[in-house]
């Protein structure tokens, strides 16, 4: 199983190849990638690689992706306790969603607590509604970063399906 560092290097290498390819094909006039689309893709890809790695299922211990959160790393400990390593967290479709859902829940709790403790505090507003033009590069960047991790782990796209099929047969 590759370490966090190796996963990061694989993702960075894949990103470089993609970026070069996108630049080349845009120059050649084959398609148009706007700077905003490229930025959204890049941000989502970086977040997926460094902050929302599937290996956060190990966050009850020491893991690279938890370290990237710095002082906030402890927020992922419950996630690591709930999700077994390379279980649901490492499935292709639902796995990446579990981390987004967890992050959303934690954000709501933290914001709620801050509002309660500091009633006068101004919170940054969530930009909405999100345009699909922005959403597609975000989803693509995030999922690609996750799938590269799963490919490097040798996890197949039917990982979760096979597990539940086996359970159903029992
Ligand atoms: Zn992994």
Automatic annotation (TrEMBL):
It comes from Deinococcus ficus. This is Hydrolase. Pfam families: DUF2227. InterPro entries: DUF2227_metal-bd. The chain crosses the membrane at residues 12-32, 68-88, 100-118. Keywords: Hydrolase, Membrane, Transmembrane, Transmembrane helix. GO terms for molecular function: hydrolase activity. It comes from the Bacteria.
């Amino acid at each position: 199983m590759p370490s966090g560092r190796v996963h990061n290097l694989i993702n960075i290498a894949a990103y470089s190849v993609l970026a070069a390819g996108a630049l080349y094909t845009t120059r050649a006039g084959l398609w148009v990638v706007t700077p905003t689309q490229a930025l959204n893709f890049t941000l989502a890809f970086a977040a997926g690689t460094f902050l929302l790695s599937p290996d956060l299922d190990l966050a009850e211990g020491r893991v690279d992706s938890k370290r990237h959160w710095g002082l906030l790393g402890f927020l992922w400990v419950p996630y690591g306790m709930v999700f077994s390593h390379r279980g649901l967290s490492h499935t292709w479709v639902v796995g990446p969603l579990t981390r987004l859902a967890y992050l959303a829940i934690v954000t709501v709790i933290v914001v709620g607590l801050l509002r309660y403790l500091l009633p006068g505090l101004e919170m940054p507003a969530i930009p909405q509604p999100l345009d699909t033009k922005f959403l597609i590069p975000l989803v693509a960047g995030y999922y690609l970063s996750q799938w590269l991790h799963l490919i490097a782990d040798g996890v197949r796209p039917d990982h979760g399906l096979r597990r539940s099929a086996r359970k159903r047969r029992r």
